[in-house]
Write a structure and sequence with these properties.
The structure is a single chain. The protein has one domain: Thrombin, subunit H. The chain contains one helix and six strands; from the N terminus they run αββββββ. The two termini are 17 Å apart. It is mainly beta and 92 residues long.
Length: 92
Amino acid sequence: MTELVTGTFEPLIGETFAATPSYAGEPLELVLSSCDESAHARPDHPAFSLTFETSDPNPRTQQIFALEHAQLGRVDLFLVPIGPTRYEAVIS
């Protein structure tokens, strides 16, 4: 299982993920654009957000996506559209 901490994702900024929605919509490619630690993070409880961008102009509804990456493998994350071509996952 992948450890959900900033150190897992920071080296992957700029990398492409294949994203398959669990509920509705077609799969799409997402590029990890940022990994920002929350001010509420503690050593025993990581809290951060991931922002992804896509060139696909058709936003998908918020839902769990299966994200696939060559190095990381598969990670299921709840993504929320925050713009026409941007998605965010909050890990806390």
